[in-house]
Give the backbone structure.
Amino acid sequence: MATRLLFIYLISSFFKRSPSNTQPGAATGPLPSANLFMKGAYLDMFVYVSENEVFTEFNKPEFLFWSEFQVVYGDWNSGPYADGSYVKSGEIAITEAMQNNGSIYLHVFFTEAGHSPNPDDTDNYNRLGTFHRSKRLNRYKKKHYAKTMNLLTGQTVATAEEIKKAKEVGSEVLSHWHPNLTINLLDDQTHWVKGSVPPPLDQYIEFEPSTGRYYPAIFLNDYWNLNADYQPINASLQTLTLTLTLAPIASWKWQMYAAQTAKKSWWVSWMDEGAEENDDDQDTVKKAFLDTNPYLLAVTVAVSVLHSIFEFLAFKNDIQFWRTRESLEGLSARTVLFGVFQSVVVLLYVLDNEANTLVRISCLIGVGIDCWKVPKVLTITLDRSGVVPWPRFVYKGSYATSATSDFDKTAFKYLSWLLFPLLAGYAVYSLLYQEHKGWYSWMLGMVYGFLLTFGFIMMTPQLFINYKLKSVAHLPWRMMTYKALNTFIDDMFAFVIQMPTMYRIGCLRDDVIFFVYLYQRWIYRVDPKRFNEFGTTGEMAAGVEPSKAIGDTAMHEETTGKQKSE
């Protein structure tokens, strides 16, 4: 987000520069235009609330919500709070159309002091001295009605009306209301060139045709209105509370708000219908800005950039590790296969719960990467001995003929003693106390919830293999280091941003596992005889005839013993 805001600001700064001097007689483009109103000019403001997108009913006083006279343009010290701001609160009567998802618009007009915004008032209307902006106050949000119930008792916490709507429509669009809005009047005297104002700033700069100059930008700011604070408008309401704040705004801050508003518009045009209202993730970011210490927040923003870099490096080194890996000795192949299962479950759960397109794509990519690793640990062939060809999966020779396979099998055997009772207990809990759309949804939800809660257990077989081999040289340490750094960053976000307690515990569990890996790396010192993650030893790199390390000797002896017994 910070990168995007800086990018917009640099673009606008580039276009604000004065054109370079040209040679006499050379062709020139449009000249820079100045603001129609100088700093310190007196303005009158008129705010109307109407159900019409285009406002023309100036003669009806019931639509006038607020009028403020002799507002000093660019003054940061006037007003009752000595900061250039004015506040107006009032009630709006709800019409039948508003109760039935009708739109509510705010129309803000600024005029030169002493003039009227009404074009029909020929004696007091000044076209050059009048500028305005409108905005829809209510927000349309899609509400989904899920047909969920307790699969054993058939009971549900949903009301009879919600059950009926779940069967008939599944979802509906409802009008929602937030009582706060800020009218920001841009305090800026930049010389803009018509046709060269960078987006999204060009949406707010309006040029006057006859003079070529531009009107001050009006920014109707609802950025800090949290999505969770919007309340539905229904027949039970008779009035709506509205609090407006008039305040000047600096150019750099306006550009940041404009960039965020544009980002939301681009998101809506790219994503599926209704994405405009699903900005819960934006709420999380806004709450972090509102509730977090500024110094901690600055550190968090800086570290978030590192998070993206480490995530890319972890992905790159993970691919490189598996692409160049020739031997699977010391690696848990069963953990790789379980990772595929876990990714598929997450993808199916996301599809079943109507997540947005971006989440679906992310999960699909994760499944693709995990499936790409499967041929690295399994040899897949077709068994044509029967009537129907059947795929046959066999572990790679470097894994099947090594002691690693026995260690991995033993680790999963011990793990199953803990895993299966936990799975059975979680399944019973989910069935007794949670609602589901059906048995398929229960199965997906149960397995997904179990993996989310106890998935860290699947990292322990590799710890067991390391312990038995007395070695960690076979691990992809670069990838693990980047992922560990990201885990520490997630820890910071988990306590800065409001998150479920289970997610915070999950971050702590990952830290504990990684510290166990570090402890193993410390006690199993570097041995030039030991194979590393690329299947080579330090002796090989030095051109010395390789010998067996302690862990490798144990693996070799157990493998030889198995071959003789066979």
The first strand starts at residue 42 and ends at 50. Residues 1-27, 270-278, 548-566 have pLDDT under 50 and may be disordered.
